Amino acid sequence: MQSMMSSPRWPQQRAHEALCCPDPASKVQLASTLHEVLESESCPVWSPTAWAAAERLEVPGRPESPSLVPPSQVPRRRLGSEAGRIALIHAIAHIEFNAINLALDAMYRFTDMPAEYYLDWARVAADESRHFSMLSQRLEQLGSCYGAMPAHNGLWEMALKTDDDCLSRMALVPRVLEARGLDVTPDMIIRLQRQGDYETVSLLEIILEEEVAHVRIGTRWFHHCCKGQSLEPDQTFMRLLSEHMADRIRPPLNDKARRLAGFSEQEMTELHALIE
What we know:
By secondary structure, this protein is mostly helical. The protein is built from ten helices and no strands. The longest helix has 31 residues, at 198-228.
């Protein structure tokens, strides 16, 4: 097999290709293939020092629809109606689509991390691709599709704010924005069970379990970055949270899932203090 280091399509460039791809189905395929290649036993471990510096990417590859609007303008409907359940599934599908881009950007953006970092985020990109595909199929079963209603751009906006610092990215995207899904998904599952929508429930249960691992990956590399800068992780996380996103911590907090995702007892204590 030709060495990946001598190939014009080594991992950073493959991640960039998938990141810039606007078609959801093609992006899903590119992200899944990238993960398969990097996980294969025949794939060599590459030297991060050989990677080129990443250029700032203001807009990732995404389709023309959905239109992006402020969060206050995203449709919200009661789950007692089919329209309400479609709106919820569409909102989650949009989060998962953005999560594909965020995982790919984590690979492309930060060029001086250990090889295991890129393998971790390739796995996340593949998982998020599968989540997006499941939700898209569920929307089609309900007579809708991804892009049928407006969505917001909050996740990518935070990616831009942290694209020059891996430590801040790992702290504020996986451990704040994505960890929010750990907090709110159990209640969604209960409400959908009450409506008898067990097909959507089964999808959310899969997503919740796998998102714990994704946030844990964020924790792993946040701690790695802290160690590299001789910073204490708990204090550093709370400082970054206070400086940038303290208003994003709201009840409920899923203590069990967050602990499984690597949050320390001290962090959980301080997070609870923020919402009391």
